[in-house]
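Quick illustration, no need to memorize.
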Amino acid sequence: MAGKKGGRGGNTVSAVYDIAKPIADSLGLTIWDITYDKEGALRYLRVLIEKPDGFVDMDDCEAMTRPLSAALDERDPIDEQYMLEVGSPGLGRELRKPEHFEAFIDCPLRIRYIREKDGVKEFIAVLTAYNKENGSITAETERGTEEILLADTAFVRLYDDEDLPEEFLSDE
């Protein structure tokens, strides 16, 4: 059986990805992220999917859920009860993987530190670079250009352009 250690499900996530990817591929979908978390007394397996045109609807979620649920029941990679949720990562999607950061260079982000840093806990920034070697991003903030270690962040999410402070909007 796959292990369940790690903040986001570790080996369980890897085993589920191996099952989910061929199903997603056959439906013309991609896997954005998979998480396996405990919330209260329940465990949640969340599979976030995308489409090339970016518009995931309920039909896509249902088309993915049915065969994935059957495959998970058959291969049984998780030895405890859990709730399966298939959905879209949404507009405020969390960026967690190298390919996420690389795909959203020059995009606005909402970043929250785990602990307050220089009097700041949460802020808006524009992603300008991703450094895979040291696990950091470079971003333009109200305070200027900053290098931010991802290990110091609670989350990094895309931020809706409509709510972006004016100083971050380009003059193009």
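The chain has a mean pLDDT of 89.
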